[in-house]
Structure formats: structure tokens, C-alpha cells
Amino acid sequence: MSSAIKRHHIDLLDEPVLPINKRGTEILRDPLLNKGTGFPDSERDELGIRGLVPPQVVSIDDQVQRVMDNYRRKTNDLERYIHLEALHDRNETLYYRVLLEHIDELTPIIYTPVVGQACQYFGHIYRRTRGMYFASSNRGYFKEMVNNWPEDEIDIIVITDGSRILGLGDLGSNGMGIPIGKLSLYVACAGIYPCKTLPVMLDVGTNNHDLQNDILYLGEKHNRLTGREFDEMVEEFVNAVTKRWPKVLIQFEDFTNDHAFPLLERYRNRNLCFNDDIQGTGAVALAGILSALRVTGQSLSEQRFIFLGAGSAAVGIADMIVSGMVEEGLCENEARKQFWLFDSQGLVTQNRIDKLAVHKIPYAQSSKSIDSLLEVVRQVKPTALIGVSKQAGAFTEEVIKEMQSHVRRPLIMALSNPTSKSECTAEQAFKWTAGKVLFASGSPFAPVTIEGKVYVPGQGNNMYIFPGVGLGAVSCHSRSVTDSMFYVAAKTLSELVTREELEVGKLYPDLKTIREISSQIAAAVCKVAFEEGLAQIERPENMLEYVKERMYQPHYVPYKAV
Question: Terminus-to-terminus CA distance in the chain, angstroms?
């Protein structure tokens, strides 16, 4: 067992002091051990730190204050991102304490939307390595490479190939900012131990020629591997990491549709894994829909859905809603008839079947072709309009007002990220419907005031779902992650929205309660794992208590030299 696991896996009730086998600057350079100015005098003497830090002993609360004072002096969001990542690289305990205490303010910086900008400039703002890079030039050596990672236990890997970063497209190895950000949320939101997370870039090249010609670009400067070469590289990676860490959860992130669906189907029943863009997005959207139905008093089976966009996110959401309709008694085929997908070629219909990607076929309607979103809205009379198209402004005033002419409380979810890609703004949706809209977005929007009433738009952020699902899966050592786990996660999340929150337009609970949300979801996921025979531990008497006891808490603990 590695030193990092030993120092983080000690039960603080039984062993209140952590034994440390490092001294002096070696401790200060280890972000998992470093307390900066927070080392008490007794530890400064015992660990050989006296004189290596300023003499004043500073509490973690005062350190948080200093971090935030400096953070708020930064003049733009990219500088704020760099400031937080610098802290991440030198003192992880303080970093996660800061995140938890200011989760509303900092989440848009460490993840969407600012992480998109950070990825665009990743090679230019690079300071210190974090995670692992499995590059095409290293094929054949992955099993040896995984042994270079110092930790003997890893719970969660988030991996991307950088091919579809948010709404920004192919960013190659610059996409490493996504796994780093996702795993920061795993730690902050769900209490996964920092030393048991591993961000991974699968560098198969990039088709972005601007990056290939950028002298500061850090990735492979050739076109992307495709077909058999790509598949073999993923297979080598999966075999390598699961050989060293057999119980690891692999989260696939920001792969293009032509790889996202096949990878999920190939590995979901073989390894502990899921695709957040498909399953996580589907669950968080379903949770928002279920919250909206608490307002309207309708059932899921009564709804008619139009999707602008027909990629992995759209189909993931549609599949999750279908699962909910099946729970209410509909068969899958009946449920799918209530979905209309609109892509770059128009309405997804049966007469396009020969040219449709496989994932779209189950939702192809038997109606005639229509190339106007407005016309689809007129004919379908939807109760819900969901945007996953990355087409800014696609939900026009005419489209939204046409929708409202058929339904008193229209549900509109403009889920494309970052903010610049949102199909409409919160202000537009509330203004054009005179405050009647039930609204959620992928990126955050400020509260909106209509005729003196303040509405608080909900953000359908995957961080509500994936940390809890991941925590649940690893807590019970589940053999796989199933769709029913995501369904129960969505249902649990919706039930946590208070009546007061629904009254001001929020479809998701307050982010300040994210740890409670994640623990509730994790406990629900564990229960499903036991019901489905997938859990590999003895069933705890109190599932929620079991989950909470294993969550990492960002506070300083005493050290002793060994």
C-alpha cells in the first residue's frame, strides 16, 4: 500500500495522528500533505519544517480567506482558474476546503463554462503535470506506464480523448482540463479521496490543424487515429488500468458520438464504467423534468418532447426519459413515439433511415420530413423543448411563444455548454413567457425579475449526478453501472428539490447542499446494486451512514514523524 493511501485511509477515530515518513521541503512539495502556513509549531519541529515557512501559524479558515481575497482581485476568469489550479497543485486540503465553502461561486470557474476556455489555452497556461497521458506514440507500453503512477489504489479514472470538448470541438490533449475538473468535483461534491483519483488523456492525435501548428501545443501532432487503431488503443488502456486497479471505475468523457456509444456498449457489461455525456446528462435532465412535473401535476407519460440536437446527450436524455415512462407502465415503443429529434438535416424520420447514425434510429418518426424547428413545434405541440445542439439562439422568441400557445407551463431546457452556445438565455425564456416557463440550462444564468417577481433559473449540471453515482458504485464495489442506477439517481435528485425552490423556478436543489445530495444518490445507487446482485461487499445496516463515513473531509489532521 502506498504512502498516500496510508496517510488518507486511516480511520481518524481510531488513529487521530497520521504517521509521515517525509521531512522538510519534501512535505511542502507534496500537495496531499502540505499545510503551508498551517503547520503548528510542534509539527514544524518534528517534521523539520521550522524556518521553511513564515513563523505565523495560520488557521485553515484564515488561509481560505487569503485564497479568496486574492481570487477576487483577479481581473478575468482564466486568471481565476489559474489561481485555483496553482492552489490545487500545492495544497489539496486547502483547495477542496475553498471549493466546498464557495461551491456556487467557484464551480463555474473550475468547470463549465470557464474550463472550456482553460482547455483552449491549456498548452499556453500549463504549469505542472497532473494525471497521466496515454499517447499513440506509447502504444505497446501502457501496462508498464501505469506502474509509473505512485498510488496502489485508484477508485475513479476520468478519461477523454479531447475530441469533443463541451461545445468547442476537437481540442486534442488540451482536453485534459476536463478530467482534472471532473475529478475535482468528485472530491469536492462526493468526498472521493484525492489520492484515489486519476485524470487521463488518451492522446490519439488531433484533427485541429491550428493546434498541430501551435508550438506550445503539448499533444501528438498528427491526425486522429480511427477505426481499428483507435479501438486497439482504448483496449490496451482499459486492460492496463484494470490489471493494476481491478476495482477502478472508468468514466468516459467528451468523446465524439461515433466513439461514445460503441465504447459504452463494448465495456459497460465488462468493466465498471459509464459515459457521463450519455448517462449522466440523461439523468440530470430527467431529474429536472421530474421536478417540473411536480409543479404541473402531470405524469411523465403525458409529455411530448422535441430535442434540438440528436447526438449522445440527446439520445442519453431520451433513453433515460423512456426508462421513466416504462416505470409508469408504457412499453418502450409507445414511449419513443413521444419524442421528436431535430438534427442538422431536420426532423429525424423513417425516410432517412439509411443515412441515420445507429443511435438515432430508435427515435426516427414515421412522419414526413420537416426542416424547420418552428414547424415541428407547431405540429407536435410539445410540452418540453430540450436543446443539446450547441446552436446559440436557436430557441427564438417565435419558437418559444408558439410552444406556449399550446401549453400553459412550457418546459424549456437549454442545455448546451458553454454559455455562449446556449439555445436561449434564462432572461429570454422567462420574458417571452411572462414568467410561466419552467427553465433549466447547462451553464449558469443569473436570477431574472419579471413584473417584480424574482425567478432563479436551474442549472442542469451533471455534477448533481455523476459524483453520487460514482461514489455509490465504488462504495459497494459494484461490478457494473446500470441504467437503473442513473434512473434512481435522477429520481432522488428531483425529490431533494424543496417546495420553496420550485416556487421561485428552481428545478434543482441548492448547490450548497451538494455533499448531502451526492451521499443520498450514492446510498440509492448502492441499494440498486444490492437489488441487482452487483454489489461485492456485505450489505450495511444503514446505507446512507455507511456512505457518509467513507467521504473525504478537507481539514488538517495532526502528523507525527516515523
Answer: 16
How high is the mean pLDDT of the chain? 94
Q: Work out the number of other CB atoms within 10 angstroms of the CB of residue 176.
A: 29
What long-range pairs does 224-230 form, CB within 8 A, spacing at least 24?
Answer: 224/161, 224/163, 224/170, 225/136, 229/136, 230/204, 230/259
Contacts of 169 (CB under 8 A, 6+ apart): 208
Label residue 278 exposed, middle or buried (CB < 10 Å: 0-12, 13-18, 19+): buried
Per the DSSP assignment, residues forming a β-bridge with 343 are 346
CA nearest 476: which of 550, 413, 562? 550
At 547, give phi and psi (nearest 5°). Answer: -65, -50
Query: Grid coordinates representing 298?
Result: 402531470
188 Cβ contact list (under 8 Å, min separation 6): 96, 99, 100, 103, 514
Evaluate whether 59-255 and 279-461 have a shared fold: yes
**Position 166 confidence tier, pLDDT thresholds 50, 70, 90:** confident
Which of these, 548, 538, 544, 552, lies nearest to 476 by C-alpha position? 538
Sign of CA dihedral 111, 114, 117, 121: negative
Distance CA 159, CA 162 (A): 9
Mean pLDDT value of segment 62-82: 98
Burial 346-364 (b: 16+ CB within 10 A, else e): ebbbeebeeebeebbebbb
120 torsion bin: left (phi>0), alpha (psi -120 to 50), beta (else):
alpha
Closest CA to 295 of 170, 150, 410, 125: 410
> In whole angstroms, what is the distance from residue 537 CA to residue 544 CA?
15
Global pTM value: 0.93
Q: Could you write out the DSSP letters of every residue in 180-206?
A: HHHHHHHHHHH---GGGEEEEEEE---
- Name every residue whose Cβ is closer than 8 Å to that of residue 97 and which is 6 or more positions away in sequence: 60, 64, 554, 555
- pLDDT-derived band at 113, boundaries 50, 70, 90: confident
Is residue 384 a contact partner of residue 302, using CB atoms and an 8 Å limit?
Answer: no
- Domains in the chain: boundaries: 59-255, 279-461, 464-480+490-549
The three cell numbers of residue 46 are: 518534528
Catalytic residues: 111, 182
pLDDT digits (tens, 9 = 90+) for 229-240: 999 999 999 999
Q: How many DSSP H helices and E strands does the chain contain?
A: 25, 16
- 390-411 confidence digits (pLDDT tens): 899 999 999 999 999 999 999 9
User: Selecting from 2.40.50.140, 3.20.20.70, 3.40.50.720, 3.30.70.1120, what CATH number does the domain 279-461 have?
Assistant: 3.40.50.720
- What is 59-255's CATH number? 3.40.50.10380
Confidence class for position 417, pLDDT limits 50, 70, 90:
confident
Residue 238 to residue 248: CA distance in whole angstroms? 10
5 band by pLDDT with thresholds 50, 70 and 90: very low
